[in-house]
Amino acid sequence: MPDAWRPSLRTEDGHRIVGFRGRELTSAVGEFSDAGVMLADAAATGVEHLLLSPWISLVPVGAGPDEARLVCRVQNEGLARLVAAYPGRLSAVGAVPVQDPAVAARELAELMAVPGLHGVEIPSSVGGRYLGDDFFLPFWEAAAGTGAVVFIHPSTRGFGIPALDGYYLWNSVGNPLETAVTAAHIAVAGVLERFPGLRILL
């Protein structure tokens, strides 16, 4: 029996379904989860190199510190193997348990020593805290010190605003809104002045 903290994968009627922390996630379509398909699609448009990131729904911000560290490490190891299988064509950013910034800082330092991994993906907020909060300073210090790319991804499905429930608006409208809000928090809180070497991808 697999460890309870591990994401599971099954295929049903040709569709990939990922189970994680009691949820079933159905958007792991082939063009987003099959490296061969992604590279072929990219090559058809003249793109020769792809940067991969974890699926934000599998970044375990609601987990305890031990479980979160394990889940992040499993994803990072998998991404590193995938990058190694396609030399020169793939790079990746990994995951760290940013809900514990001190642990995230240590994990980030280890991750940056892995060939092919160039940074991390983190959610735009954790437990109601936005990324400009002083709580995250140990993480930002480590990110600046290691030169890591920090990819910030929306994670609240449009802040739960009812008007964004339909027509995929939680994504097309909510995600840019959430990105703008977290960027404003980072800027106004002075994070960029404190760590001018940060490499942030929104």
Automatic annotation (TrEMBL):
GO terms for cellular component: cytoplasm. One of its GO terms (biological process) is secondary metabolic process. GO terms for molecular function: carboxy-lyase activity; hydrolase activity. Keywords: Lyase. Gene3D superfamilies: Metal-dependent hydrolases (3.20.20.140). InterPro entries: ACMSD, Amidohydro-rel, Metal_Hydrolase. This is Amidohydrolase. Pfam families: Amidohydro_2. It comes from Candidatus Aeolococcus gillhamiae. Residues 65-201 form the Amidohydrolase-related domain.
